[in-house]
Every structure is written in structure tokens, then in C-alpha cells.
Amino acid sequence: MPNDNFGPWTTSLTTGSRLEFSAFWKGRLTRLAGVADGRLTARRHSVGIVLTVGIVVTLFPMFRAQSEPVGAFEPKETVVSEIVRSPSVDETEAPQEVALNAVAITGLAPEDPQARELQNALRDAIAYLSGLQHDNGSWNDGKGNTFHVGITSLGALALARAGVKPNDLRLRRAAEYLRAQQPKMTYELALQTLALCALDPKRDAELIQRNVIWLEEGQKKEGPRPGGWGYGSGGPLPTGGGDNSNSDFAIWGLDAAAKAGAKVRRETWEAALDCWLRCQTADGGWSYTNGQPSTGSMTTAGVASVAICLSHVTNEERKVSEKEQVALDRGLKWMKTHFAVGHNPGGSEWLLYYAVMFRRAADATKTERLGDHDWRREWAEYLLNNQNRQTGTWIGGSAESNPVLGTSLVLLALLGADPVPPKE
């Protein structure tokens, strides 16, 4: 493959396009200078380090030329085996080589120009996330709050799904950071579990099992939503009122833990399934909590959660009941009737979260098409066409305005949201 790039600049020697910084070095310089959307804290670095970085950049051929937007493609999987060199998050470390051969490019042969464009988009996103990772392995949301565990877990899970190997420096540091944390919210506890299941589940088996116990203890036993979860995660942590968003994240994490070998009680799945069946709305969708209208993000979360719970309780003796099948069918019909890729149906924001939940629902139910909708192609076209090509990032509405959060969510929506344990 010809290399049209040189140093920290994204250039095109064949097209004569103007010089621009590549996505990684924009992210890296953002981190050094503290100018990323006005959110990063300014840092001072010596001239010697800057000169060292200038020398090192010539070793990293991970920069791309400007190209045309991605066109349509079909939902077939082709594995791309291109090797790219990833940046080290610590200049004293040797660069880590990463094979993106785990990245499945939907419907395109590796030599297809559109496949290269998609590969470029993913590579730029990986470079951006790499450049914003802190030296302790964490990411944050850039808003000064304390949700570093959740943001770090999403960043690590996204990189793992994008083909970065668990022994890569970035993921090793992320794993070390996460192991040292004790999350205080259901969201973060579930996301920490997901990330650990993707990185080194055997090493972290005890920690993953601890998280399962805390999630099970945090499941509501009484009140208006027994079987669901609230913001508290149980164990030594307080519990709060239940809602479908927290409940879905808890099930997402428990499912990953079970697939990684942790023991989840059957009663946990049965109670959660009953909760989701009871709170389905009259139109077949799901809402954030009782009495609210159905939304795309919550309906797809509901479909995914019901399907996951059923996968853990059904067997040769315990079949899917008519009531359960009807609930799934109604949820899928809602998704089909309200299908959209440019907005969260019924909701004013959370588009990128909806994209991830849609992917989870479709994967959990093995849904290849929704009526006339080729959902893989339509989602991929929309998301790729809305990437910031200068930075390699995605951002959503106000709640998803942080590019680390947005970029991580889109990678999971494009590549799959469930952790894949590393091969032996």
C-alpha cells in the first residue's frame, strides 16, 4: 500500500491537498497544549521533550490523506489485516505495533477504496483516543467531574473492539487503572466489568466476580420496580430508584461477566426479565421509567435486555413462553416502525447512545434487517459521514458533547458493543 504521508502532517503527494496535522498529533498536541475544545487542563513540557516528539513522529506511519466520503456497503464481513503502528502514551516506551485484523469491514474487500476510507476513519478515531489517554491509563470526560471509571472503561472497550491487542501499552495501562478503582455507580460498575472482560478476564476473574455480587445485591428486591437497578450498585454502596437505563447497563455487564466465566444466579436473570416484561409500554417500546413515552434508546435497550435474559434462563426444559416472544416481537416492531439513524426516536438527545443500544439489540436478536432497512449500512453511512475528519472524532448533543465519550460510543456501534475475550 503506498504511503502518501510524512511525519506529523497528513498530506497527499498525489493530489496536492493542503498540509494538515494528522488526527493523532492533533490529539497529542491538544493534550500537551490543553486546547481540546477548551476542556483539557494546560500542561507545560520542556523544549527537549517537544524535540524528542518531533523526531519520534517520523517513525509512525499512521497518517492519512484526505479522501471522499464513504458510500453504501452491504452487511458482509471482510477482515482487514493491515498493520499500523500505534503511538506510545509514554515517549520513554517503545512504540507498540497493532494489527487491525480484528476489525471487520462490512461488505467491502480490503482493496476497495471505500474499505480503505473506513479503515482510515477507524484509525483516526483510535489515534485520537490514544492521544487523549492520561499517563495513568485513564480518560476523563473533560468536564471536571468524577466519572473517570466509566469514561476509561468505554475508551478501553472501544480500543479493544477496534483491534488493539490487550497487551498493548494503552490497554495495559487502562487495565491497571481500572483494577485500582471501586466504582460507586451502577453505570460505572457495569462498564468496568465490560472492559475487564475484554482485556484480561482470567487475571481479573476475582474482581469480575466481585462486581457480579455487587450488581446482584444492588438489584431491586421490592418497590415499584423489583428486578431492576437504580444508580447505586449494591454491596457497600447505596441503592437508588430503579430505571431502565441503569437496569440495561447492569444486564450488559452481567452478561459479559457470565460469558467470561463468572457465576450469575439464575434468579437474577429471572427477576430482571420479569421487570422488563412488566414495564414494556402499551405501544411495544420501552421508556426510561414508568409513565414516560417510549424512546429509541430505551426500546433497543429493552429488546437487548429481554433477549439476553432469555439466553440465560432458557434451555431444553425451559422454553421461551408466548408472552416473552410477543414482548420481543413488539419491541422489534417498534424499532422497525420508528427506525431512524439521524435522531433518537421519541427523545431529544442521546443519539450515539441509541446507536450502541441499537447495535446490541440487533446482535442479541440476530436481526439482519428491519423490514426494508439494512441497518448496518444505514448506521455506518450516517456515522462515518458525520465524523470530524480533522480530528477523527464524533460528538453528539449536549449530553454526548465530549469527543472521548462520543468517539468511544461510535466505535462500539460500528464494531460491536459486547466484549470479546482475548484468544489464548
Which secondary structure elements does this structure contain, and how are they paired or packed?
Layout: E1 9-12, E2 17-21, H1 23-33, H2 47-56, E3 77-79, E4 83-86, E5 96-99, E6 104-106, H3 113-132, H4 148-161, H5 169-179, H6 186-199, H7 205-218, E7 229-230, E8 242-243, H8 244-259, H9 266-278, H10 296-313, H11 322-337, H12 351-364, H13 375-385, H14 403-415
Antiparallel strand pairs: 1-2, 3-6, 4-5, 7-8
If you had to describe this structure to a student in words, what would you say it looks like?
There is one protein chain. With 424 residues, the protein is mainly alpha-helical. The chain has a domain at 184-415: Glycosyltransferase (Alpha/alpha barrel), CATH 1.50.10.20. Helices cover 46% and strands 6% of the residues. The protein is built from 14 helices and 8 strands. The chain has helices spanning 23-33, 47-56, 113-132, 148-161, 169-179, 186-199, 205-218, 244-259, 266-278, 296-313, 322-337, 351-364, 375-385, 403-415; strands at 9-12, 17-21, 77-79, 83-86, 96-99, 104-106, 229-230, 242-243. It has a two-stranded antiparallel ribbon. A hairpin with a 4-residue loop joins strand 1 (9-12) and strand 2 (17-21). It is globular, with a radius of gyration of 22 Å.
